[in-house]
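S1.2 Input.
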Amino acid sequence: MYKQKTHKGTSKRIWKTGSGKLMHRHAARSHHRGRKNVTQSLRRKQDNAVAQSNPRVGELLPYQ
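S1.3 Output.
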């Protein structure tokens, strides 16, 4: 059986916390920030958990 490869693009965007949750950053943070209201900007500052029902992440990150 061959060794699976980690998808490098996914490994740069998703990380595992100490409790075992997979986290990612919100999109749309870099530019056109003047158009977004304060609620949207503050919501995008927080890190977001990856859905547990997402089976694709397990395939892309086999050793995490």
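S1.4 Remarks. The beta strands are 14-16, 22-25, 47-49.
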